[in-house]
Structure formats: structure tokens, C-alpha cells
Amino acid sequence: MLDESDDIHPLFNGAPNTTEFKKLRKRIIRETREAIDRYGMIERGTRWLVCLSGGKDSYTLLAALTELKWRGLLPVDLLACNLDQGQPGFPATVLPEFLSKMGVEHRIEYQDTYSIVMDKVPAGRTYCALCSRLRRGNLYRIAREEGCSAVVLGHHRDDILETFFLNLFHGGKLATMPPKLLNDEGDLFVYRPLAHVAEADCEKFATAMNYPIIPCDLCGSQDGLQRQQIKKLLDEWETRSPGRRGKMFSALMNARPSHLLDPALFDFVGLMRSEQVDTNPKD
């Protein structure tokens, strides 16, 4: 049923009719569904704000969620949203035309956060932190205006791994992007349904579908970003030991608090030997 030409959403029209692509598509759909189920993302009858940047990851996210809803496996409404942040040369017509052609309900929002970022960030510093904060604030606002229960982002497995190592090497903590997060106000969830999906699969999928990719020139124009250094490191590890990324990601789902060093997660002080427990038996 998954590959019948007369039973397909317009987002998949023109999909390559090859065994390799069919396997890729099924893997992405399966892994997306696994993440949604594993982390309890579904609230029946709610509405999700699916955030689109126009990059390969967000196109893959939209396609996977639309496929699941099309199959009756995702009982929520989807509203695609692109936040045009006023970057010079941003092709503002690409996403509206694409979404209209595909019959996807959407909202395009224009907010010139680019000028704010350029004004506030000193020369030579990275734009990402402030840009992300401004973008997230606007997306929360839009989600509330549209009656959405969740803001849905296209971060994939490799984004999560990179963030873990960024926090490890530069932040001094064991933390990463969680697949499900409650915002500070407590009224919106943040979901990452592609948490189990590899970046390479997103790239292969979006390329095969010939989706109109919009690069992020604002961030991509900066050299020496710490995230790029981490990505290069992970690439080198993967080249030397194929499957390393998968092993590391599995480790993030298999934490052992008693084998780490955080007393807030495990009561080391209260840990006692059996002989200690029996020193004062009850009469």
C-alpha cells in the first residue's frame, strides 16, 4: 500500500520508482513514527505547527508527518509555517508556491529578525544563538495564535548528537536537544519527530524528491562555528568506524545515572552495603 501510485499524497508525487528510494522512504516513516510513539507526542485532536525553513530536514519532516496523517497514523492537524526573517535575497515565494501546489495548509510570517541580529551581534561573533531565540519566540506566538499545542521542529539524529558534544566540550554538561520538551510557560510542547532519523537520509530523500531547497546564508556564511567543528569530528569518527554515530545515539537512550557523577540524579550518599542496612534491626 505504501508505494501504490494511486494512493499517495501530492508531496510524494514524482518519487523515484526504485527499490533504494522505497526503502529510504519507509525507513524515514518508520523511524519518525517510532519517535512519536516512544516519546508520547500524540494528543488526539490537537494541532501542530510544523516549522519549515526550506532546508532538507524540514522538507523531510513535513513529508513524513503528512504521510503518517495520510495513513491515519497521526490523529492531529498539521499547519506548516515558515518564518521569513528578512534575510537579504531570501526567495520569499518558494515555500508559499510549493505548499499551495502541494495542497498543504500553511502560514507564512514575515518578521525582520535579521536586522536585529546584525545590529546586536558584535563583528566576528556567531549569529545562531540570538537568531534562534528570536525565531523561537515568534514561533511560540504563532502557535498560540493558531491554536496549536506543539511547535514541531526538523532536528534529526545528527543535530542531537552534535548538541550533546557541544554541551560536553563547551558547556560542561551532559545534555542535548530532547525529542519532547515543555516550554517555560508550560503551554506548548516542542517536538522533534526526526530524532531517530539520520541527516544523510534527510539529504538523500530531499534530493531524490527534488524539493526546492533554501540555504541558510545567514549562518552558513560564518566560518569556524563550533557546531561545524563537531560535525567534522563526528564525520571522521564515522569514516574510521562505520556505525559509530548509531552507537553513540543509542547511548543517549541508555543512561545509567548510578554510573555517572551527578548526586542530583542518584543518591550516592544514601547508598549502603547490606551489612549497614542490618546494623539496627527492629525488635
The residue fraction in helices comes out at 40-55%
Instruction: Count every beta strand, where a strand is a DSSP E run of 2 or more residues.
Output: 6
Number of helices: 11
Main sheet summary: 6 strands, mixed
Our measurement of the CA-to-CA distance between the termini, rounded to an integer number of angstroms, reads 69 Å
> Beta-sheet strand percentage?
5-15%
What would the average pLDDT be, to the nearest integer? 89
What spatial form do the alpha-carbon principal axes imply?
globular
Rg, nearest Å: 22 Å
How do the SSEs run, as a string of H and E?
A: HEHEHEHHEHEEHHHHH
Strand arrangement within the widest β-sheet reads 3-2-1-4-6-5
Low-confidence stretches: none
Structural class: alpha/beta
Notes on the structure:
- The protein is an alpha/beta fold.
- 45% of the residues lie in helices and 10% in strands.
- The protein contains eleven helices and six strands.
- The protein has a six-stranded mixed sheet, with helices on both faces.
- Helix 1 packs across helix 2, helix 2 crosses helix 7 and helix 6 crosses helix 9.
- It starts with 18 loop residues before the first helix and ends in a 6-residue tail after the last helix.
- The model has no long low-confidence stretch (mean pLDDT 89).
What is the secondary structure topology, with strand pairs?
Layout: H1 19-38, E1 47-51, H2 56-70, E2 77-84, H3 94-102, E3 106-110, H4 113-120, H5 128-145, E4 150-152, H6 157-171, E5 180-182, E6 189-191, H7 199-209, H8 217-220, H9 226-240, H10 244-252, H11 274-277
Parallel strand pairs: 1-2, 1-4, 2-3, 4-6
Antiparallel strand pairs: 5-6
Helix pairs in contact: 1-2, 1-7, 2-7, 6-9
